[in-house]
Specification:
Layout: H1 12-25, H2 39-50, H3 61-66, H4 70-78, H5 103-115, H6 118-122, H7 124-158, H8 168-176, H9 178-211, H10 225-249, H11 251-278, E1 287-291, E2 294-295, H12 309-315, H13 323-327, E3 330-334, H14 365-368, H15 387-394, H16 403-406, H17 414-443, H18 446-449, H19 462-466, H20 471-502, H21 522-536, H22 541-569, H23 583-600, H24 602-622, H25 631-647, E4 661-664, H26 677-686, E5 692-699, H27 706-722, E6 727-734, H28 737-747, E7 757-760, H29 766-769, H30 771-786, E8 790-795, E9 808-815, H31 822-830, E10 838-847, H32 853-867, E11 872-877, H33 885-904, H34 908-926, H35 948-956, H36 960-971, H37 975-985, H38 992-1012, E12 1017-1021, H39 1031-1045, E13 1051-1055
Parallel strand pairs: 4-5, 4-7, 5-6, 7-8, 9-10, 9-12, 10-11, 12-13
Antiparallel strand pairs: 1-2, 1-3, 8-13
Helix pairs in contact: 1-2, 5-11, 5-17, 7-15, 7-17, 7-22, 7-23, 8-9, 8-22, 9-10, 9-20, 9-21, 9-22, 9-24, 10-20, 10-21, 11-20, 15-22, 15-23, 20-21, 22-23, 22-24, 22-25, 23-24, 28-30, 30-39, 33-34, 33-37, 33-38, 33-39, 34-36, 38-39
C-alpha cells in the first residue's frame, strides 16, 4: 500500500489482531496449509484465527486471513493524506489539525493574487495603445478564453476524486500517464521558475525606471537600451539572492507576506478605477511634447516650443537643422484626457510598428520612418510588434489559475470550492482586464499609451498617474505585489520539482527528492535559483513573457487534452462532480493553446515542445514504470478494442500477413526454460517489431501448484526481458502436458491478434524418454495443423546465434513442397535483424525425373524477382531412385526396435533402460560420418559462452557415453529381453511403407548435407505427421525426421498454415 495510505489509531486494533494470529500459530495464516502440522496445531491455529472474526463472517474466514476487513479498508481510504509529508521532529508535539478553508479564502483570493501580476501595471497600457481598443480587447479575450476553458477542464479533473498537492502535474500525470505527467510537470516547473525571473525583472524595472532612476550603474539608460537591460541583470541578480535567502530561511514569512501582497494588488486596482472616474475630464498633471506627429522625450514642458534654444540646439547641430523639424511645429499635448474627451475613438485601431520606427500619430511613412538614421529626442519602437506577439507578452497576466487546486488538501470541500473559486476568480480578473482595456483607451492619449517606459513624461508610470490619490499608491503597491508573486514562485517551484522527483519517474531528479532537516526542499531551491538566474540574464520582460507563456500554454493544453481523453473514453472511473464541461470545450481549449503558441513565437514554441518530447521519451525509456490508471492506458485499450474488432471482420490480406508468434517453451525441473535461445530466435524473427506470446505448461493441479506457476511466469518474463522479446507470457497448469498445449494453441490470443505461427522446440531425448515425449510433440504438430497455424521447429537451437552477434554466411532454403510461401518469407524476415543481415540467401529445390531443371531454375529466378527477394537459385536433380541396402537396414532396425518395445510391455524405468540398449546397438550398426549428432542441449544452458566450442565437440561425440554404457546395459538383460530379441529377429522383412519414407529421408539428407553442411541455417519443409494415431507410426515419424536432419548443425523445419503468406502483387 502506498505511503500516503496511513494507518491511524482506529486501525491499530485490527493490525494487532493480525500480529496476534501470526504469533499464535508461528506462521502467517495464509501459510498454515502449506506446512505439515499435527491436528493440535491446526486446531489451535484455527481457534486463534476465528477468535478475532465476527461470528457472522465465519463463512469468509479464509478470505479474512489474507485480505483486510472492509472497515480497515474504508479507514485507510478515509485517512488518505493528499499532501507531501514534510520532515517532522520525533520529539515535537503532534500539530493541531489545520483549519479547513472555504471557497473565498482557500481558492478565490489565492487565484486573484496569482493572476494579477506585473504585466497589469507596466505593460497593459502599452498593449492597448499598440494594438488599439479592438485588437487589445481581442488579445485579452483570447487569453481569458484559454484560461476559462482550461479552468472548466481542470474543474472536471479536480472533482473526479481527490487531487494531491502538485496542481496540474498531478492532474495530468494521473490522467494521461507518467510520461505526459512528467513532461508537463517539468514544463510547469520551468514556467513557474521563469515567472519568478519575470517578476524580479519587473520589480527592478519599477524601481529603476519609475522610483529611483538615479540608481543606474550603467549611465543614462533612457538613451541606451543596453544600459537599462544591464541594470536589470545586475539588480535582478542581487534581488534574486535576497529573495532566495528569504525562501530558504523563512517560508512562514513568505506566507505572511502573501497577505500583504494580495492587499496591495487589490488596493492598487481600486485606486486605478477610482482615478479613472476622478479624471473623467482629464487632468493637468501630464503634458507631452510633440514634434509634428512624433512623440519627444527628455524635453522639459517649459522648453516645448520651436523657438526655444533648447529645442534648436538638439535639432540644429552645426547650424544644420533636421528637415522634419523645419517642416513641422512643436506642440504640447495633454496625456490624461479623460473618458469625456472622446479620445477612445483615436485609440480604436492598432498602431503596430517595426523596431526603429518612430512613435507618432497615424501611419504615414513620413512620420514613422527614420530616413536620416538620426533619432534626436524622438521615441522609437524598441521591438517589432504584432498581434500575436502581444498575446505572448500579455498571457502571463492570466496565468495562476492552479493556485486553488494546489491547496485542495486544506479545503473543507474541495469538490465544491475548486470549480467555484477558480471560475469566479477568472471571471473577476477577466472583467478587470477587459474593462481596463476600454478604460485606458478612453482615458489616455494614444502617444502616451504607446510610450512603454513613460519617457515623454519624465520617466513616470502611466497607470500610476491615472490612479487616485497619487502615483505612489501604484508604485509601492505594484512593487510589493510583484515581489510577493516572485516569492510565491520561488516557494512553489522547488516543491513542484520535489513532487516530481518523489514520484521516481525521472531518475536523474532523484537527488532533488530529499528534504532538509526542516522539511524544506533545499536542493530543489538551489536548482530553481540557477534556472531563475538564467532568465534574469535575459534582462527583458518582453523576452521573458513570451517564453514562459509557451510553458504555461503547453501545460494548459495538456489539461484540456486530459479532460477530453477521459470524457471521450467514457472510462468507468470518470465521474466528475463538476457537470458543466464537455469534450468539445476541452478540444477548443487545446486548439487555442496550440494556436496561440504557434502564432506568438514559433521558435519559443519549438523550444518548449522539444523539451516536452525529450522528457517524454526519457521517461518512456529510462523512467520507472507507474500504474496510475491514467487515460492514455484507457485510450490504448479503446484503440486496441477498435482495432481488434476491425481485424475480426475477416482474415488479413496476404500483404498484411505477418507472423504473430506463439512460443511454446518447455521448463525443466527448476522451472527454467530448457532452450533459452528459442527466445532469441523469436526476437530475431520479429526484428524488434510485433508481439510475441510465450507460454509454458506445467503438469499438475492448479489449486496445489499456483505459487509454482507464478514463479515460473516470473522466470519466463525475465528470460523474455533478457532476450528483448516484446510481448506477453503466461503459464498454464494442466493434468496432461499434451492437453495443456492443445488448449493453449486453440484459445490463445484475441480476435485478429491470435497467433498464427507456433515455435516449438525439438524433443532431443525422445528415444530415451519413451512414448510420452514424442507423442506430445506429434500431438502438438497435429493441433497446430488443425488450427491452420504455421509451425516452426528449430533443431540445434543452442547453436543458433545470439541476438547481439553478427554472422555471415549462407541461409539455405530447401523448398521441397509449396506451403504458402512461408519458406520464402522467413529468411527475409530474419535478414531484417542485425544478426542475420550479412547472410546471403540460397534457395534449393529438387527436380524430379520428368522435370526440366533448366526451366525450373529460370522460373524460380523470375518468381524471386517479382517477390523482391535476392537469392541464389540451384535446382538439385535426384535421378537415382534405387533403394539402397543401407535404407533397408536402417528401416529394419527401426521396426525391430518398435516390435521389441511392444513385446516387452515394461514399466517406465525398465523401458528407458532397454530403449537405451537398443539405441546404442542401433547406432553401433548404422553409424555414418556426420558433422553433428544432436543431444539434449539442456545441460549446456548453465555453461559459459566461452565453452561453446567444447559444447559442439561434446555434442558431436554424444554417442561416446552411450557406447561405454552399452556393454554393461546389454549384459544385464534379463530373460524376457532375450526372448523378445529372438522373436523380432525372426521377422526380417521391413514394411514397404516405412522403407519408402526412410529412403526419402536418407536421399534428401545426403543432398542437403552435401550442399548445405556449412550453412549458417538450413530451412526446410517439415513433413506432415502420420494420419494414423499408432505408436509405431509416430515413432517411425520421429526417426524419419532424425534421419532427414542428420549431420546438420542448425536446422529450422517449417510447416505452413494452409494459406498464402506472400504475394508478388503490390
Amino acid at each position: 500500500m502506498p505511503d500516503r495510505f496511513q494507518v491511524t489509531k482506529a486501525d491499530e486494533d485490527t493490525v494487532l489482531d493480525y500480529h496476534q494470529d501470526e504469533s499464535a500459530s508461528g506462521k502467517l495464516l495464509g501459510d498454515i496449509h502449506d506446512e505439515t502440522l499435527d491436528s493440535g496445531d491446526i486446531h489451535r491455529a484455527e481457534e486463534n484465527q476465528k477468535s478475532n472474526i465476527d461470528p457472522n463472517l465465519y463463512l469468509y474466514d479464509d478470505d479474512l486471513a489474507t485480505r483486510p476487513h472492509i472497515s480497515t479498508f474504508i479507514s485507510s481510504i478515509a485517512n488518505y493524506e493528499n499532501t507531501i509529508p514534510a520532515a517532522t521532529d520525533p520529539d515535537a508535539k503532534p500539530p493541531q489539525p489545520s483549519a479547513r478553508m472555504g471557497t473565498l479564502i482557500g481558492v478565490f483570493l489565492p487565484c486573484i493574487q496569482n493572476i494579477f501580476g506585473v504585466i497589469l501595471f507596466i505593460r497593459l497600457t502599452w498593449v492597448v495603445g499598440t494594438a488599439g481598443a479592438v485588437c487589445g480587447f481581442l488579445i485579452v479575450l483570447t487569453c481569458c478564453c484559454v484560461t476559462m476553458l482550461t479552468a472548466i477542464s481542470m474543474s472536471a479533473i479536480a472533482t473526479n476524486g481527490v487531487v494531491p498537492a502538485g496542481g496540474s502535474y498531478f492532474m495530468i500525470s494521473r490522467s494521461l500517464g507518467p510520461e505526459f505527467g512528467g513532461a508537463v510537470g517539468m514544463l510547469f516547473y520551468t514556467g513557474t521558475t521563469l515567472a519568478a525571473a519575470m517578476y524580479i525583472v519587473g520589480a527592478v524595472e519599477i524601481v529603476l525606471t519609475y522610483m529611483a532612476p538615479w540608481a543606474s550603474i550603467f549611465g543614462d539608460f533612457t538613451k541606451d537600451a543596453d544600459a537599462m537591460y544591464n541594470n536589470f541583470r545586475v539588480y535582478g541578480t542581487v534581488l534574486l539572492i535576497f529573495m532566495g535567502l528569504i525562501v530558504f530561511v523563512g517560508v512562514k514569512f513568505v506566507n505572511k507576506f502573501a497577505t500583504v501582497a494580495l492587499a496591495c494588488v487589490i488596493l492598487s486596482i481600486i485606486a486605478v478605477y477610482v482615478g479613472i472616474f476622478d479624471n473623467i475630464h482629464g487632468n493637468e498633471k501630464l503634458y507631452m511634447c510633440v514634434l509634428g506627429k512624433r512623440l519627444l522625450k527628455d524635453i522639459p514642458i517649459d522648453n516645448c516650443t520651436k523657438d526655444d534654444s533648447f529645442m534648436r540646439d538638439i535639432y540644429c547641430p552645426n547650424n544644420k537643422c533636421d528637415d522634419y523639424y523645419l517642416n513641422n511645429n512643436v506642440s504640447k499635448v495633454k496625456g490624461i484626457k479623460g473618458l469625456a474627451s472622446g479620445v477612445f475613438y483615436d485609440n480604436v485601431w492598432p498602431s503596430f510598428l517595426e523596431k526603429g520606427q518612430f512613435i507618432s500619430y497615424g501611419r504615414d511613412s513620413i512620420d514613422i520612418e527614420n530616413i536620416d538614421n538620426e533619432s534626436y529626442n524622438q521615441i522609437m519602437a524598441d521591438i517589432t510588434t504584432t498581434f500575436t506577439l502581444l498575446i505572448g507578452i500579455f498571457f502571463p497576466s492570466v496565468t495562476g489559475i492552479m493556485a486553488g487546486s494546489n491547496r485542495s488538501g486544506d479545503l473543507a470541500d474541495a469538490q465544491k470550492s475548486i470549480p467555484i473559486g477558480t471560475i469566479c476568480a477568472i471571471l473577476t480578473t477577466s472583467t478587470v482586464y477587459l474593462s481596463s482595456v476600454l478604460f485606458f483607451a478612453g482615458t489616455v492619449d494614444n502617444l502616451l499609451l504607446r510610450d512603454k517606459f513613460g519617457q515623454s513624461i519624465g520617466g513616470k508610470l502611466v497607470v500610476a498617474n491615472i490612479a487616485w490619490p497619487n502615483q505612489w499608491v501604484i508604485l509601492i503597491g505594484s512593487f510589493l505585489s510583484t515581489l510577493g508573486a516572485g516569492l510565491q514562485s520561488l516557494t512553489g517551484a522547488p516543491r513542484l520539482l520535489q513532487a516530481i522527483a518523489r514520484d521516481e519517474i525521472i531518475p536523474f531528479l532523484a537527488p532533488f527528492a530529499k528534504s532538509s532537516n526542516r522539511g524544506e526542499p533545499t536542493r530543489a531551491l538551489l536548482l530553481t535559483i540557477v534556472i531563475c538566474q538564467c532568465g534574469i540574464l535575459l534582462g527583458n520582460v518582453d523576452l521573458l513573457a513570451p517564453l514562459l507563456s509557451m510553458f504555461f500554454l503547453m501545460c494548459y493544453g495538456f489539461v484540456n487534452l486530459a479532460c477530453a481523453v477521459q470524457t471521450l473514453l467514457r472510462t468507468p472511473n470518470w465521474r466528475p462532480r463538476f457537470k458543466f464541461y464537455h469534450w468539445s470545450l476541452s478540444l477548443i481549449g487545446l486548439t487555442l493553446c496550440i494556436s496561440v503558441m504557434i502564432m506568438t513565437s514559433w521558435y519559443f514554441a519549438l523550444i518548449a515542445l522539444s523539451m516536452a518530447i525529450v522528457i517524454y521519451k526519457y521517461i518512456e525509456y529510462r523512467g520507472a514504470e507507474k500504474e496510475w490508471g491514467d487515460g492514455i492506458r484507457g485510450m490504448a485499450l479503446t484503440a486496441a478494442r477498435f482495432s481488434l474488432l476491425r481485424l475480426e471482420e475477416g482474415p488479413p490480406h496476404t500483404k498484411n500477413w505477418r507472423p504473430q508468434i506463439l512460443v511454446l517453451s518447455k521448463l525443466n525441473d527448476n522451472l527454467l526454460p530448457k532452450y533459452r535461445k528459442i527466445f532469441s530466435f523469436a526476437t530475431q524473427l520479429k526484428a524488434g517489431k510485433g508481439l510475441t506470446i510465450c507460454v509454458s505448461v506445467l503438469k499438475g493441479d492448479h489449486t496445489k501448484i499456483a505459487n509454482k506457476a507464478v514463479d515460473a511466469k516470473s522466470t519466463l518474463r525475465k528470460y523474455m526481458t533478457d532476450e528483448k522479446v516484446k510481448g506477453f507470457c503466461d503459464i498454464l497448469v494442466a493434468q496432461q502436458i499434451g492437453e495443456g498445449l492443445s488448449s493453449v494453441i486453440q484459445t490463445i490470443g484475441l480476435g485478429g491478434m491470435k497467433p498464427n505461427t507456433v515455435i516449438i522446440g525439438w524433443p532431443y531425448s525422445w528415444r530415451q524418454e519413451g512414448r510420452n515425449s514424442w507423442r506430445t510433440f506429434i500431438q502438438t504438430v497435429r493441433t497446430v495443423a488443425a488450427c491452420h497455424m504455421a509451425l516452426m521447429v528449430p533443431k540445434g537451437i543452442n547453436f543458433y546465434p545470439e541476438s547481439n552477434h553478427k554472422i555471415g554466411g549462407n541461409i539455405d532454403i530447401w523448398w521441397i513442397v509449396h506451403d504458402g510461401g512461408l519458406l520464402m518469407l522467413l529468411p527475409f524476415l530474419l535478414k531484417q535483424h542485425r544478426t542475420w543481415r550479412n547472410c546471403k540467401l540460397r534457395i534449393f529445390t529438387v527436380a524430379q525425373i520428368e522435370d526440366n531443371s533448366i526451366q525450373m531454375k529460370k522460373d524460380l529466378k523470375t518468381f524471386l524477382y517479382h517477390l523482391r527477394i535476392e537469392a541464389d537459385v540451384e535446382v538439385v536433380e535426384m535421378n537415382n531412385s534405387d533403394i539402397s541396402a543401407y535404407t533397408y537396414e536402417r528401416t529394419l532396425m527401426m521396426e525391430q526396435r518398435n516390435q521389441m518395445l511392444r513385446a516387452l510391455g515394461l514399466n517406465k524405468k525398465e523401458n528407458s533402460k532397454v530403449v537405451q540398449t537398443i539405441v546404442d546397438h542401433h547406432y553401433d550398426a548404422t553409424r555414418t560420418a556426420s558433422k553433428v549428432r544432436f543431444a539434449d542441449p539442456t545441460t549446456e544452458e548453465t555453461q559459459n559462452h566461452e565453452s561453446h566450442n567444447d559444447e559442439k565437440r561434446n555434442s558431436v561425440d554424444s554417442d561416446a557415453p552411450e557406447e561405454t554404457d552399452a556393454p554393461e546395459t546389454t549384459s544385464s538383460k534379463d530373460e524376457s529381453t532375450e526372448k523378445a530379441d529372438s522373436k523380432f529377429k525372426s521377422n526380417v522383412k521391413p514394411d514397404e511403407f516405412n522403407v519408402r519414407r526412410m529412403h526419402t529421408a536418407i536421399k534428401l539428407n545426403e543432398v542437403i548435407v552435401e550442399k548445405s553442411q556449412d550453412a549458417q541455417l538450413v530451412i526446410m519443409n517439415l513433413p506432415g505427421p502420420p494420419r494414423e494415431v499408432r505408436a509405431e507410426r509416430e515413432s517411425n515419424y520421429m526417426e524419419f525426421l532424425e534421419v532427414l536432419t542428420e549431420g546438420l548443425e542448425k536446422v529450422l523445419m517449417v510447416r505452413g498454415g494452409g494459406r498464402e503468406v506472400i504475394t508478388i502483387y503490390s
